[in-house]
């Protein structure tokens, strides 16, 4: 009874579809970042050095990139609501699941051999919820921009009125 309940909750939290990410893929992960009361999308691009729990709701990938000469690794839960989408940029030929040997390498020795693949077919995962969130965020940004523009226009109108008033005073003083 309890296992079935746990399974039901886990299945509800899973996304309908996720991209088939493998070790050695170069991916671009779009992640939601909350700063204060604003939400934005940050992109983290690097090589997948590890995949865990592929068929489960706890499936995770570890992505490694070199930033300013320093290796940076970040783990992403694929079914997390904060992970907007995962886009495969390049696929490489590897013979392991865990590419820990890349940590000790840099430059040309850290290169992986690329493999031809159909990029559009692999990245064609439809996530309606993510698209709705992205659309809502764009609408919110558009509303904020419109509000700022209206505020600027009101300020400019106020300045124009003051300038006209000053010109009228100068014109009356000269006469």
Quick synopsis:
With 175 residues, this protein is of the alpha+beta class.
Can you walk me through this structure?
The structure is a single chain. This protein folds into two domains: 125 residues, Roll (SH3 type barrels); 48 residues. It contains three helices and six strands. The termini are far apart. The radius of gyration is 26 Å and the shape is elongated. It is an alpha+beta fold and 175 residues long. It has a six-stranded antiparallel β-sheet, with no helix packed on it.
E-strand count = 6
Give the distance, in angstroms, between the N- and C-terminal Cα atoms: 96 Å
Under the CATH scheme, the architecture of the largest domain is Roll
Report the top-level CATH class of the largest domain: Mainly Beta
Q: Multimeric state of these chains? A: single chain
Can you tell me the overall shape? elongated
Integer count of domains: 2
Arrangement of strands in the largest sheet: 4-3-2-1-5-6
Strand residues, percent: 25-35%
Indicate the radius of gyration in whole angstroms.
26 Å
Write the layout of secondary structure elements.
Layout: H1 2-13, E1 26-35, E2 38-52, E3 60-67, E4 70-77, E5 83-92, E6 114-115, H2 119-122, H3 128-174
Antiparallel strand pairs: 1-2, 1-5, 2-3, 3-4, 5-6
Identify the notable features of this structure and list them briefly.
175 residues, 6 strands, SH3 type barrels
